Amino acid sequence: MPVRLRCTALLQQALLVLAVAAAAPAAAQTGNLDSQLAAGLQALPAPLVAPKPPLSQVVPSQVLRWREEAQALEHGENGMPRDPARAATLYCQASQHGDAEAQFSLAWMLTNGRGIERDDAQAAHLFLAAAEQGMPQAQRMMQSLGTPRGEPPPCLQPMAVQAPTPPAPPVQLAARQPQRPAPPPPEPLPANAPEPIVNFVKLVAPEFNLSPQLVLAIINTESNFNPNAVSPKNAQGLMQLIPDTAARFKVRNILDPAQNIRGGMAYLRWLMAYYQGNVVLVAAAYNAGEGAVNRYRGVPPYAETLNYVRKVLAQVNRVVHPFDASVTAPSPALPLMRVAGAAPVVRR
């Protein structure tokens, strides 16, 4: 074939390809972009920075001081007189802030009547809270005491977790001419978020009626953007899905970054409807499970979960979020959570 004819044929083929692409529906183009971004996630390396320390071991210094003072008062050590009642009060304060050792110590005092009135019912709840945080001694005690009955005691009532107050906008002088209100500033995203993850989340999050900022905050707190992260509880991937949650939301390959993110978003969307847009309760449930949030009527008294919720709120600066009420019925415990002091439930 002459060169001129061959070039003409190639040009016609190129124009035909362009015409087909131009005629493709927007949904198909979005799907192609989705596939391209998902493919980019496959080549995502693990972060070069060290992973974050386990949150379950993080206890605020003030809580640690309460526990240490309680131990001294319980046993009459460190030059302090023995005062079981005061020790129990301090253990109670530390227990409410999620200190598993304080929960175990107070439960031990209650079940043995050491200087305070014996109360096996309260002790069982405290042993359970410590056991759920991974304390082996508490897990053994639960085997002998059995499942606690009734409501958790006051020492395990949910703590109020507040979002940080955003800085006040700068004061501006009144303009001579009326001006349109400035558009809201873009939501800040984690500085350590890899670009492929940010792009994929921004594309997919609207499908689940979720803020990309919230999704990235969850990923950052869960895995530090490590697609290969695996926790001691077998939570896996960027959004740390456990196998049961992955199966619940039909994630076939839990370590595939795109599938993992979509599965995590599906769970977040469900939690948003279940807790009617309450970001505090959603974050707590994503970390500890909705069963624990319902049982404690708010953020469970686990050091890891309390710290987790604070970290998420520090990145999103909001406590309410739009939700789709058609996804699931609200938690039956929500009215009780209002009484227990959980964050207010607001529907947009």
Automatic annotation (TrEMBL):
Keyword Transmembrane: no
Signal peptide: 1-28
Keywords (A to Z) from UniProt: Signal
GO cellular component terms, A-Z: membrane
One GO molecular-function entry: peptidoglycan lytic transglycosylase activity
Domain Transglycosylase SLT: 207-297
TM region positions: none
Pfam families given in the database record: Sel1, SLT
Protein's GO biological process: peptidoglycan metabolic process
Entry keyword Metal-binding: no
Region: Disordered, residue numbers: 162-193
Highest taxon in the source lineage: Bacteria
Compositionally biased region (Pro residues): 180-193
Family in the record: Belongs to the transglycosylase Slt family.
Name of the protein described by the UniProt record: Transglycosylase SLT domain-containing protein
Species: Pseudaquabacterium pictum
